[in-house]
Amino acid sequence: MRIRVVATGLLFVLVSAGTGGCGADGAGDVAPKRWAQSVCTALAPWRTEIADLTARAQQQLQSAKTATQTKTNIVDLLAGAETASEKARVGISGAGVPDVSGGDKVARQFSASLSKARDAYGNAKRSVQALPTADAKAFYASVGSAFAVLKEEYEQSAIDPKHVGQKDLQKAFSEVPECR
Q1: How far is residue 73's CA from residue 79's CA, in Å, rounded to a whole number?
Q2: Under the phi-then-psi rule, with left for phi > 0, alpha for psi from -120 to 50, and beta for the rest, what region is 61?
Q3: Is the pTM here over 0.70, yes or no?
């Protein structure tokens, strides 16, 4: 039963995968549609990886017989999500700056969002790694607390690409096939 609670918490946090951030002003040199295409191309594998990690974690957590097995599975899942988030951040940083007013701010927002998501997964991973497993009840309660912090940190990173502020970018995100 405890394992199902952990799996449900993982699913909730990981399936909510979005993006988020902050910034300044200035236009870049990448056309809005091309920038949106690059961003969505970088995010697609990230979202797929998060979904795959979640599915694998659910299977592993349901078959785990001990708190130690559960801990190993959760740490692996969080490490994978942390790595996938960093890959996506690098991809988005490589997209350049969209040629719209405040484009540099928008580009920084997306990169910062994925940095925050990466850091949230990393913090949760380190929290779970540090948990003792001798007392299974205490372990599962502590995992629940670690995931509550993960959820809070993760939600602070979220941004919806279709609501980035600039109408040119909003339009680009809604028109580019990679973003659908």
Answers
A1: 10
A2: alpha
A3: yes
Rounded to an integer, what distance in angstroms lies between the CA atom of residue 149 and that of residue 155? 10
CB 144 within 8 A of CB 6: yes
Q: Collect all residues with Cβ–Cβ distance below 8 Å to 129 and sequence separation of at least 6.
A: 71, 75
Joined together, the tokens standing for residue 86 give: 């960093």
pLDDT digits (tens, 9 = 90+) for 70-109: 999 999 999 999 999 999 999 999 999 999 988 998 999 9
In b/e form, how buried is each residue of 132-143, taking b as 16+ CB within 10 angstroms?
ebeeeeebbebb
Which residues have C-beta within 8 Å of that of residue 59, sequence separation ≥ 6?
Answer: none
Among 8, 28, 26, residue whose Cα is nearest residue 16:
8
